[in-house]
Amino acid sequence: VGSKVVLHSCEVPADLVFVKKAGGELGIYGHPDLCLGYGRNLAVAKCNQYGAIWETQASSTKSAVLSTSDGGCIAIPKLDEPNARFPFSVDQIDCAEESRTVKFFMSKN
After folding, report:
1. What was the pLDDT predicted at 23?
2. Residue 59 β-bridge partners
3. Residue 87, preceding peptide bond in cis (omega within 30° of 0)
C-alpha cells in the first residue's frame, strides 16, 4: 500500500499488472486485497478505500481507457517524449483531457 504506480517494459507476455475484479474495481494481479489507488499520483491502495472506483471496457481484444466512476482517467506523461526511458509514471487526470488519456488492453477478462 502506498507504492507509486509506474510502468516498466514488459518483456514477457504473461506479465500482468491490473485485473478486473467482480465489483468493478481494478485490482493488482496476485494481491486480491490491493487495488489501483485514486488521486493525481496513483499509488497502490487497499480495495474499497475510495468512493469512486476504476472501471474499464477493455478486454483482451479491445482497448479502452481506465476511468473512475467520477470522471478521472489515466495518463502516462512520458509517452509524449520520444527518448523517454522506463519506468513511466502513471497519473490520474480529468477525462475531459481526452488527448492525454491512454487506452489499455486487459490480457485476462
Report:
1. 66
2. none
3. yes
